[in-house]
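hey so i finally got around to running the thing on that chain from the lab meeting. sorry it took forever, my laptop kept dying and i had to restart like 3 times. anyway pasting the input first so we r on the same page abt which one it is
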Amino acid sequence: VRLSSKQTPSFLSHSSSRLLSHTRCLELANHCLGFNGWSSHIIALKELANEEEEEEEGRKRRLRFGCVVQLSFPQHGQTTRGTAVEEDSFTETGPDIILQRRCWLHRLVRQAALVQAFSTVLLILL
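ok and heres what got predicted. didnt touch it at all, straight out
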C-alpha cells in the first residue's frame, strides 16, 4: 500500500478517468487487503449552515453536511484522510421528509469522503 501525495495521480489525470464508486472501493479493498487489512473511521461528521426559504409551494430547505474519514492500513503502517461536503435542497412537506433527507445525506457524505480517501491509495499487487 502506497499513498499518493497528489490529489489525482498523474496516470489518472486524463479527462476520461473518474473515481471508483463507493461499492467498488470496498470490494477492491476487501479482495486485495482482506477484511482485517484496512479500516475506516469517521473523524468528523458535521451539519453545516442550513437555509430555509419561503416559496409558493411551501418552505424550501437546504441541508449541508461535511465529513472527514480516516482510512488505516495497520499491516503497512499507513493512514490517509478524505473529506467531502454534500448538500440537498427540497420542499419541506413534513418532519418525516426532513428526517429521511438528513439520513440520506449522512450516508451520501460519508460515502463521498471514503471514496475521496481511497483516491490517494495505490495498491501494487505482485
